[in-house]
Each structure stands twice: as structure tokens, then as C-alpha cells.
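Ticket #301: bound-state structure for zinc ion.
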Amino acid sequence: MFNAVQMPADRQWLLSLPDQAWGTEETIAALVRCIHRVNEGHPDSPPAIIGSISAEHGGALPPHKSHRTGRDADVHFYLTRRGSRWYEPATADNLDRPRTWALLRAIVTETDVEYVLIDRSVQALLEQYALSVESDSAWVADLFHGSGEHPNPLVKHIPGHTGHMHIRFFSPIAQERGRRAYDRLVEQGHVKLEHREVKYTIEPGDTLSEIAQRHHTSVEEIVRRNDLQGTAIIAGSQLVLYETLELRGARDRVAVPRRRLPRSSSAVASSDPRPAEPPSGSDAMVQAALLDLERSLDEPR
Ligand SMILES: [Zn+2]
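RESOLUTION: The complex was predicted; output attached.
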């Protein structure tokens, strides 16, 4: 992760792990906006407790499997008892439903979110509350269970997430910047790719350059490794290839799905259509971000 932003200090939230409170600019902005939204509706709220987001430069963050790219954030459910411990499980007795639902609602309706992970037991409490205050019950059901339009629910079950929700945001600008800078990052060694040796039997019609391209290696590498005298190859004979394992998804264009909005805010939805891909207007922002990235790549580290 390049040019990460640390979650700022604010009386509306507590950072339980400040060293792990780094995210993309988009993630941080989304979290700030959503917690502010809770406090607008409930001015006397206790601070939200924020756990891991990512390390300053991203990468593995044990014991988490994710939290590597500044797009994941753990936020404790609001509880009705003050001074509760971090990771204290939420139950029917202590879950602050209005505030926790306000937070989840803001995440869903006001940010680009891929999914939210919450234990089923807490989901049930939140869904029940949401149905009691929302006019669009089909929308609530769609969020928690999916629908014909969305086979996958946005809020997903994960065992053990009874104390906090894990939010995975999209960060279209950061993701697009990473995609465009990928080759340069690999070239400069900021992204280290793994390799593996494979045996390959040459098929009729194969050329070395096609084989090299398919296996993310080079003609020179194949010639050197197999002691070839030239680039002529014979079908049926075997080559040892030193394949480069590409980072999964590194070259994929980011597609941000349309936000799932309740029917009552359809007016907002239609005046703010969400394209399936980053809007062309954001191209300038991506370009500016790329310049930033170029600069930080040029700086000695
Ligand atoms: Zn998490």
C-alpha cells in the first residue's frame, strides 16, 4: 500500500490499535463519514471503537487473513453499556441497535462497500431492528439475505464476529492506481512475485514467444534454462519453464457495483447513477494519485 492515510484522532471514535489504523484515502474518508453520520442522528454517542484497518505499508497483518490493502476495517458494535471491553460480544441485552444500525446503514448507502461480515446472531438482532424502523422491508431483506437481483447478501455471516463488524470497502481510485502502476511496482521490486518451475511439453504450432507470454516468463529465460541453441523448438519435446505467478487480480479493472439503496431514497439514486466502473470524471483523480505514487516511488526508502 502506497500513500496510506492514518485514521485521524477524533472524539467520535477510539483507535484501539493506532499502528494498524492505516487505510486508503477512500477507506478512511468512508469510515469518518459513517461515524459522523451516526453522531448526527445520535449526538450523545459514545466513541466508536476501531480495531485493525491495515499496517502503514499494507501487507500481512497477523492474526488477520485480510487487512492487507487498506480496504478492511474492524469496528466494534455500539453497546448500551459504557466502558465495555474491546471485542466484548454483542447480545440482545447490550447491543445498541439504533446506533449500530445507523452505522451499518451509512456504510451501505453512503460508501462503496463490497461486504460486511457479522456473526449471524448479531445480524438477527440488527435485521429485526431495521425492519422496525425502515419502510422498505424488501431492501432490508436483500441486505441480509440477498434477493433475485442480488444472489449474495451484502451482510455476510462469519463465525465469531459477535463483537465487531468487518467492513470491506472498494477503493476504486487506489485500486485503479495499483493496476496502472503494477508493472512498474514489479520492475522496481516493490511487489515481489513468486515463481515456480514447471515442465511443459511443446505442442505442434507453439512458438517460444507464445509459450513465454502464456507462462509469464521470457524467451531469454527459457533459452537459458533449457540450454537451447536458438529459438527453434520441436513438438513433443519438453521444456522447463520458470513461471512467474502473477498477483491475483492485479490486472483486473475495478468494477464497483451500484449501491443498494432503499426505495424511499430512489430519488437520490436516480440523480446519482452509479456506473459499473469508476466514472470517467475520476480519471483526473486517478492521474493525480498516480503522480503522487510516482513521486513516492522515486523517493529513497
Ligand atoms: Zn477484520
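RESOLUTION NOTES: The longest helix spans residues 25-41.
TICKET STATUS: resolved
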